[in-house]
Specification:
The chain contains 9 helices and 12 strands. It is α/β, with parallel strands linked by helices. It has a single domain, classed as Ribonuclease Z/Hydroxyacylglutathione hydrolase-like (Metallo-beta-lactamase, Chain A, 4-Layer Sandwich), CATH 3.60.15.10. The radius of gyration is 18 Å and the shape is globular.
């Protein structure tokens, strides 16, 4: 098993809106980072980014107004399904999609993977009923093949609630609430340590690493379901870095993607023992 990362185009906006330390009006281009995990029984995606339809016709979906508001810049080949084909996979190889949360830039591409089960925290399904008030597209409330789950009161990697997705310790779902009510952090066991895909738990690495007294961004104030809970999640991510040397990935850091593996050849090897009944150690 291995893991690598891709982005489905970019979004953008004024830098001062995302980074409280900046007063710059320059257009900050941000990626939409998703993870591709190889397992013996197929691929697992952490988020999907935008769909083929959006990448080909953004003025139709999500529409001109949303495209301009998001600063969305996409091309047909940016869709993750198209990228996987270019990398030698088929969309049908994707068997599972784990949603960090249900905003359209994270799960819009689910429709391109017809064989995949979509794993969504039950709290997030409830939260998505808020619609545009919570930043949710109406289309995200009727995703196909959804498998809701509940996090257990079982601590893991310093997080108080978790779920062992496959029952073998290789992929853990952790409570990352704050940006949305049902946001999760997805932990993947590497041969050495862990990588944690935190979705929008923070917009960029410096945000969750900052001191608790540091001001939050205008984006966080505008878009967070609960800013106090989001700051709690910041602390859990810092703890995972400090105590476990975990590699934390957030979805929209413009400087992060260049430091990540983006192909099968450069992928981080994961802990996976093919021998039946021998579970990966946590």
């Amino acid at each position: 098993m291995s893991v690598f990362f891709r982005t489905t185009g970019t979004m953008g906006g004024p830098e001062f809106f995302v980074r409280p330390s900046s007063r710059s009006l320059r257009d900050l281009r941000i990626p939409v980072i998703v993870a591709v995990i190889e397992r013996p029984d197929g691929l697992v995606l952490i988020d999907t980014g935008w769909s083929r339809r959006t990448c080909a016709f953004p003025d139709d979906d999500p529409g001109v107004a949303q495209r301009l508001l998001l600063g969305l810049s996409v091309k047909p080949e940016d869709a993750l399904a198209s990228q996987l084909i270019a990398l030698g996979y088929a969309p049908g190889d994707v068997r599972h999609v784990v949603a960090t949360h249900l905003h359209a830039d994270h799960v819009g591409g689910v429709v391109d993977f017809e064989r995949a089960t979509v794993h969504v925290h039950d709290r997030e399904l409830v939260a998505s009923a808020r619609g545009l008030r919570g930043g949710y597209s109406s289309a995200m409330r009727s995703l196909p093949r959804v498998a809701p789950y509940t996090l257990d009161p079982t601590p893991a990697l310093g997080f108080p609630f978790s779920k062992d997705l496959f029952g073998d310790g290789s992929v853990l779902l952790l409570d990352g609430r704050g940006h949305t009510a049902g946001s999760v952090v997805v932990a993947v066991k590497l041969q050495e340590g862990w990588t944690l895909h935190a979705g929008d738990a923070a917009q960029y690495v410096g945000e969750y690493r900052a001191d608790d007294a540091a001001p939050s961004s205008l984006y966080a104030h505008a878009m967070s379901w609960n800013l106090a809970e989001q700051r709690r999640t910041y602390g859990l991510l810092r703890g995972a870095e400090a105590s476990l040397d975990a590699r934390v990935v957030v979805s929209h850091d413009p400087d992060l993607l260049d430091t990540l593996p983006t192909t099968k050849d450069t992928a981080w090897p994961c802990a996976w023992d093919k021998r039946k009944g021998n579970k990966a150690r946590r």
